[in-house]
Amino acid sequence: MHFTGAEIAAWIGSYLWPLFRIAAMIVAMPIFGSILVPVRARLMLALAVTSVVAPVLPAAPQVDPISLEAVLIALQQIIIGVAMGFSIQLVFNAVTTGGQIIAMQMGLGFASMVDPQNGTQVPVLSQLYQLLVTLLFLGFNGHLVMIELVAESFTVLPLASDGLARNGLWLLAGWGSQMFAGALWLALPAVASLLVVNIAFGVMARAAPQLNIFAIGFPVALMMGFVVILFTLPAVVPQFESLANDGFELIVRLLSRE
Fold first, then answer.
1. pLDDT tens per residue, range 11-61
2. 166: exposed, middle or buried (C-beta count within 10 Å: 0-12, 13-18, 19+)?
3. For residues 65-103, b (16+ Cβ closer than 10 Å) or e, as one string?
């Protein structure tokens, strides 16, 4: 069997450049991009998805794999994949930030542990919320939606030296504000309830200055926080579903170049 250089370049391009986009998305997205997942496992997952998606993709451009244009195409694929994964990562960070706000309000901010996904110190309550939304994301088949989006992205944004538009990058940067809005939306019931408790403590301290508010207020605020979490935890499911849908819509807008 004899193969020409053009045939070999086309075969390499049809698998190598999609691999860059898919691998970048897997590394940037939550769960699979966690430091707990070995690099070999991520690479095998990217290779498996690429082997399934690549045969049904549009024809790759006929470019020399060691040329400057090939390097630009590879960089564009990495940028597109990172943008897609980072959009969903912001959704998870919104939930983590909301848990941090609740923990600080109820006095659990000192109870911190290492986040196994990001390798940073976060309150235990944030870790609880993160584990919950991780199970919800897998239960909603969010990982399958991401694979479907990255497969469809090759039709909307074909393999070429030009990728995301400048407006799309600004849209992704501006959507970072949604992380703080989503975190506040998640923590608002607990913040409002604990604010009422703190106001009551202020009135008590004013009425009875000899009362040790710090000794009484801390356990009461802690117990009140657990009660609020007990009643507001079921509401996390629709809130996270709404945030995840917004994240998927952001990916669609990024790929549409609007």
1. 766 778 888 889 999 988 888 887 778 888 888 988 898 888 888 877 766
2. exposed
3. beeeebeebbebbbbbbbbbbbbbbbbbbbbbbbbbbbb
Distance CA 251, CA 136 (A): 20
Alpha-carbon 152 to chain mean position = 20
Q: Give phi and psi for 58, each to the nearest 5.
A: -60, 160
Q: How many domains does the chain have?
A: 1
Instruction: Report how far residue 220's alpha carbon sits from residue 50's, in angstroms, rounded to the nearest whole number.
Output: 54
Angle among Cα 114, 42, 150 to the nearest 5 degrees reads 110
Report DSSP letters for 83-133, one per residue: HHHHHHHHHHHHHHHHHHHHHHHHT-TT-EEE-TTT-SEEEHHHHHHHHHH
pTM reported for the whole predicted model: 0.81
- Domain of residue 160 covers 5-255
